[in-house]
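Sequence in, structure out.
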Amino acid sequence: MPNLRDLRKRIRTVENIKRITSALEKIAAVRLFRAKGALFNARPYARALDCVVADLLNSQPEAVHPLIQKNLTGDALLIVVTSDRGFCGGFNGRIIQTAEEFAAKVGRGNVRFIVFGKKGTEYLRRHGYNILASHINLPAAFGFAYADEVGARVIDLYGSGEISEAHLAITEFVSIGRHVPRVTRLLPIVTKPEPGRSYMNYSYEPEPASTIRAILPRLVKTQIWTGLMESVVSEHAERMFMMQRATKNTDDVIAGLTLVMNKARQAMITRELTDIVGAAETMV
């Protein structure tokens, strides 16, 4: 059985770990609250923009734009959103697995990557994937500029014929305890008529073509932006949950070590009493 000094040292060590995990849990909770508010404000705009584009394209079947035309040559492009730091459970592992499954389906040599997050960048680079660009060490409250920059590059690559399609791999935030990795298509923009839905017939000023030219790039950038926020909220929720569980585990470890220490102290006191009683009997 370990001595009392070693047990006290181990308890202090676990208590220090508990302080760290508890602090990380609180930080993740604050960041989750802020990011979730931004996401819930952005979702209605993204859905409305998607509906407007569907209405425009379905009411103008003769519309011509590079982003709705299919490219017959070029590789596939996948934008993967991971985190810069760990301590977030299976968040990175699930989305990286999803990205690898996509690459296996398309063909490993036929897919290029734009990666957000240090974890995904390091993994994909270590395994020899073709990374066009990586964005790491993003600030906690990053703005639309990142999505605007990446979206502009994706549109240029598609317009020049270097890529045949573009997809986005994100972790969708469903609830605090449920985060679902998924891959969505960005380009070419495809809108299929929904049965039973009546589409809006807009009045255009100055003309339909200029309206479509302006709104389609905005749709791509908005999809990237909302995808980034979905993944950020999922990351904070996962980290908060994992740190909460780690803190609870430290409580269990401290309780177990305290029980062992009390038993060791009791055994030591019993031995001392036995020695005292034995010494007293020999003196009689």
